[in-house]
Design goal:
5-stranded antiparallel beta sheet; signal; Mao_N_sf; globular
């Protein structure tokens, strides 16, 4: 037994891992599932996951989102100067410029400052969404209690994938919810878990109607958007009863090997009185 321990110690000292000794492949490591808070809402959609990294709150308590999302979800024209490490974001004749690592921000060439800095994360520039919204004049609201930042406007969420594919097909015979939509503001996602190994998202949403909701009426709809396609939630799925202030969890799995670009969620209430 002592000899066996000496051999194992010698092998480890030579740089061999326990995985090699047991025949396991150390090169294949599945990414662990991770839980994230719900931080951003644009019109009726809660914007949960955004590639390449979920929105997050930085050390200065600013909600940060990737530059790509600004273009695709907020309808702005975006350009990036890699040499200067500066992004120019243009919308409605207003151009806002941010520079990685700098507190300086300019609006139509007029310099100003902010209390945080844009950063590079996974080869993507992340911008403080509240600073950008304020400079562009987008209607916004911060809910301290829920830690949720909300943007509203007719020019937001107007990409072809959302406006035509998602919203036009949402009323189709195979994708429409089984009942009249009474409200798009009945459930608020509080968190979600992304498991890239299983290709699944699990959304935890809270009943914010102030009432008990009967079985069949809760409709937390999770849409997975990819670069060139969209995945609708199953039309026929379990919709349990939810008590006042209660929560429910909804899990959706990716149905394509493509990497998700976004996870968008609507927290709806359905009229099932005719069913």
């Amino acid at each position: 037994m002592k000899t066996g321990k000496k051999v194992l110690t010698a092998l480890l000292a030579a740089g061999l891992s326990f995985a090699m000794l047991t025949g396991m492949n150390p090169g294949k490591v599945e990414a662990a599932a991770k839980k994230y808070p719900a931080l951003l809402k644009i019109n009726d959609y809660y914007v949960l996951y955004t590639a390449p990294k979920a929105p997050y709150v930085d050390a200065n308590y600013r909600t940060m989102i990737p530059l790509r999302s600004i273009s695709e979800l907020m309808g702005a024209k975006v350009s990036y100067d890699a040499k200067a490490r500066t992004a120019a974001i243009e919308k409605d004749s207003v151009t806002v410029k941010f520079t990685i690592g700098s507190k300086s921000v300019s609006v139509n060439g007029v310099a100003g400052s902010m209390d945080t800095v844009p950063v590079m994360e996974q080869n993507s520039m992340f911008i403080p969404v509240s600073v950008l919204a304020g400079r562009l004049g987008i209607v916004s609201k911060w809910d301290q209690a829920s830690q949720l930042y909300t943007l509203t406007g007719e020019t937001l969420m107007q990409t072809d994938m959302i406006k035509y594919t998602l919203e036009d097909m949402e009323g189709g015979p195979f994708t429409a919810p089984p009942g009249k939509i009474i409200s798009n503001d009945a459930f608020r996602p509080v968190s979600y878990t992304y498991d890239p190994g299983k290709g699944s998202f699990t959304v935890k949403a809270k009943n914010i109607t102030g009432k008990d909701i009967p079985a069949g009426a809760a409709d937390v709809a999770a849409y997975i958007l990819y670069d060139d396609t969209l995945q609708f939630p199953p039309q026929e799925r379990v919709r349990p009863a939810v008590r006042k202030e209660g929560t429910l969890e909804v899990t959706v799995k990716t149905e394509t090997p493509s990497t998700p670009a976004y996870l968008l969620v609507k927290g709806r209430l359905l009229d099932r009185s005719e069913n």
